[in-house]
Every structure is written in structure tokens, then in C-alpha cells.
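Practice problem: predict the structure.
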Amino acid sequence: MLGIIKNKYNSLSNCIRNLIQSSKPLCRLEDIDIIKRKVVIHCRGISTVIKINLEEIMYDEVLISNLSPVQAAWIGYYYGIHYEEFKLHNNSEIYNNGPPFTDRGGKCSMVMLDRRGNLVYFDQTKNRNLVAIPLIILKTQSLLQKFSPLQACYIGFLSGLSVSKDQNNITTVSQNKLRLVTANQ
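Answer:
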């Protein structure tokens, strides 16, 4: 009897170890409802899906870290687009600095943002610092996959912020009234 329990325990622990060590993420993004700002996630081994607010998932490092870097980046992107709205509706201290991501587990890791908003990152395969615009990293899947899911989410967040600011600038410029000035005036 003790041998059967020991075998079951060993097979269960091997199964869990294989899940953790496999290259596949434990969770996958099923859907992002932009209008309702809801995210639907499916985790391996669980038959039900997780429905969570876009705002809540951004501060859930466990869920974000168990997604692929690309999926985590898209969550960050949509959150970044709506960040100002979240900030206005929720008068909280958490919005002063953005999402709290400090993870460095990837082939590339973020070092800093320069004054122009470019991301300086360290590439371990090339063993040097490189500079790129966050939106370019988001659009380049091969590069984005080198970052950890948490850092990829932050890259998406920065990209969403820049797109949101660009859209706001366009509407501001189009609202300005132009008048024709001629030499006779």
C-alpha cells in the first residue's frame, strides 16, 4: 500500500515538474474585450476560464508571468491605451508609477528608459546594451519573445501609452482653428 502511494506521489511530482519546466506557458490568453475591458485566460489543467478586469490583471504578477511574452505584451498594450482613463476613475497611489514589474528572467532584460522614451535593454546573447523604441519591440515578435512575460507586459504598456499620447496629440492638432492670412491684411 505504501509503495502505491509513493508511486502516485512520484508520478504527480514528475508531472508538475514537467509542466513547470516545459517551454509552454501555463496560461494562455483567450480573449481581450476592449469595450468591457475584460480579459479571458485559460490555464492548463483547469477546465474553467478565468475572467478578470484588464486593470486587475496588470497588477497580478503571477498570472502575467505564466503567459507567453507576446500575450503579456498585448495585455500591457491595451492597458497602456486606457491608462489615463483608469487613472482618472481610480484615485489611487498605484497609478503614479505604472505597473510594478522588476523581473529579469529572459534573454533580454530592460535596463532603463532614456529621455526620448527609448528602451535600453541588455541582450545576453550579444552581451551588450541595445536601444529600441518600445513599439518596435512590440511589433518584432522574435525580439519580444526574448524578454520575460512581465517585462514584455511593461513593453506593451509603454507602447500603449505612446500610441494613446499620439492619438491625443492628433485630436488636439485637428481641433485648432486655422485661418488664412494673406498679404493684403
